[in-house]
Design brief:
Elements lengths: L1 E5 L4 H12 L10 H8 L5 E7 L2 E11 L2 E9 L8 H15 L4 E7 L3 H9 L3 E6 L8 E7 L1
Parallel strand pairs: 4-5
Antiparallel strand pairs: 1-2, 2-3, 3-4, 5-7, 6-7
C-alpha cells in the first residue's frame, strides 16, 4: 500500500474511483467532476490518495471550514476495505490538522455508511448533530474529533 498527497489535478481519476466506491450507496449518482470542482471552488483542499500497484484504491478530501478541519470525502474501494486503508487516511488527516494547528476535525457521514460511522466512533469521534432526512433514510450524522 502506498499513500501520497494528491492535488486538484488528480480529481479526474479520483472522481472515477469515487464513482466505484459510492455508486449504489444512495438513490442518486455519485458526484461528477463538475460537482467536485464546484464544491472545492474557493477552498484549498488537502487530498490524500491510497494506491496499490499504481491503482487508486481510496482517497480523502478535506479543507478548512468554520475554523476547523472538515473531512468532506473519505472512501475505499470495497475489495480493499478492512485492511486499514480508511484508518490510515484518517491518520493522515488527523496529523495534517495537528500540524496546521486545527483544534478539531468535523465530518458528516450518512447513516447508510455504517462501516465509516463505526470506524469514526471507535476512533473517538463524537456525534454532535444529526441532520434528519424526511424519511430518515439518509440522515447526516455530524461527528467531531478534538485534537
Amino acid at each position: 500500500m502506498n499513500y501520497k498527497k494528491g492535488s486538484i489535478n488528480d480529481l479526474p481519476e479520483l472522481v472515477k474511483t469515487n464513482f466505484q466506491i459510492f455508486n449504489g450507496m444512495y438513490e442518486w449518482p455519485p458526484y461528477t467532476l463538475d460537482q467536485y470542482t464546484e464544491r472545492l471552488n474557493g477552498v484549498n483542499p488537502t487530498i490524500f490518495i491510497a494506491e496499490r500497484d499504481d491503482k487508486i484504491i481510496g482517497d480523502s478530501i478535506a479543507f478548512e471550514k468554520d475554523g476547523g478541519w472538515y473531512l468532506w470525502i473519505l472512501g475505499v474501494l470495497e475489495e480493499y476495505r478492512k485492511q486499514g486503508v480508511a484508518a490510515h487516511l484518517l491518520d493522515l488527516n488527523e496529523q495534517h490538522a495537528r500540524d496546521n494547528s486545527y483544534k478539531e476535525i468535523t465530518v458528516k457521514v450518512y447513516n447508510v455508511s455504517k462501516e465509516m460511522l463505526k470506524l469514526l466512533i471507535e476512533r473517538g469521534y463524537e456525534i454532535v448533530d444529526i441532520h434528519k432526512d424526511k424519511d430518515n433514510k439518509y440522515n447526516g450524522i455530524v461527528l467531531r474529533f478534538v485534537l
